[in-house]
UniProtKB/TrEMBL annotation:
Keywords: Cell inner membrane, Cell membrane, Ion transport, Membrane, Potassium, Potassium transport, Transmembrane, Transmembrane helix, Transport. It comes from Hirschia litorea. This is Trk system potassium uptake protein. It is a multi-pass membrane protein. Its main location: membrane.
Amino acid sequence: MSSQIKLRPILYATGLMTFGLGLFMLPCVVADLAAERGEWRIFFLLSITSITIGAVTALSSQHDKMPIRTHDAFLLTVLLWVFVTIIASTPFSIGFGMSFTDAIFESMSGLTTTGATIMTNIESYPPSLHLWRAMLHWIGGIGIIVMAIAIMPSLRVGGMQLFHLESSDTTEKFLPSIGEIALQTTYVYIGLTVICAGLYHITGMSNFDAIVMAMSTVSTGGFAPSDASFAPYVEGHADIVAIFFMALCSLPFALLVLTIHGDWKAYRRDPQPLVWICMAITASVVVAFFVATHPNLEIGPEGAFRMVMFNIVSILSGTGFGTEDFNQWGAFPATIFILMMFLGGTAGSASCGLKTFRVHIAWKTMISYTKQMIRPNQISPVRYAGKPVSEATLQSIMIFMFLFLATFAVHACGLALTGLDPLTAISAAAATICNVGPGLGEIVGPAGTYQPLPDVAKWMCTIAMLLGRLELIAVFVILSPSFWRN
């Protein structure tokens, strides 16, 4: 195995991430000190420990810069997410007495920007923990975006090669470009977070809540410092701000970076933004009409559209904020919400799900295949963004979609075997593998949490969150026996 896998780069990257997490714990110390809460000592000790271990690991694993092969990149990507999740779970387990299972679940949910929680009576926890949960979203969000822009296209995962950057023209040399890509994207990411926090504050949020909610919004995460999720902030019209930023951050960040640098036609070249916005508006109008005209729901048309659009955009973007328990709206809206979970956001954003471009290309492939069935001699190539899509890319997309749906089916059946009712099992499976957060039903719905689930079900959901975030194939590749053969 030593000839196949390079461990030093993996240890080096893990050390840097551990060191970074230790630094991110320091603002949590400040938050508790400002609120005069004694829990600051927990984060201070964990911060010093993480910084020390991370620095020692990174320094002892330094190596000469050299291209990392695709083979190593698969392992590096998966192991980094696992190791960072374990380290990030320590404040939950050591500091606040959660079981190892619950701590890992909460940490994985945060870093994958899923937003599913096992915590109840959230308001009773200190500011440090609220800020830490938001920071996990924020760290995971920028990590996911950089991975989607710079790494996944080079690994040719699930059709992501469509978004291969010119600066990363070979799979063997994609890492040198990550620094430039990450820097440009991080500037935009920070800027959006600051603007979002400022607008939240204008709507009446406290400074602390504005910062925490901005981190959760821009990362399309969904953790909130209240059991009622986003409901406490609706009166100040913060939900309107949230709709805009959830939608904006569900679109490709690379296009946003290009637009800021003067390329105003960037959004025209990629069909994803237009398709995503059309899906969001169409679903909102249909569900709002149903809710406004339902005899048992006394909601006016204007209030219904605003309420429905917030929740539709929240689910479609994978954020998972909630202002209402949409379980009470009936079977038809619930079906639409399940569909929105699967559709997800766009490639190059922090959102997950099947992704807009895959659904779009699958639809075009079906039309092309239908035309060829009617006229066998007609050549009808599948085109995306004005360019023909290669057979290899089409195959990659179809394999991904099959694996995604098959994994969802297995996950749902596994949850049902733990004793969960069908609605809870199916919606929890969809919500975790699509990294959305809230499902349907009384247990995991918008008004519930994942706390009542048995530990086995929590571990299933934790694994599903990782699989969904890493686009499935990256994990399946390292689990295959051929990966480990010399």
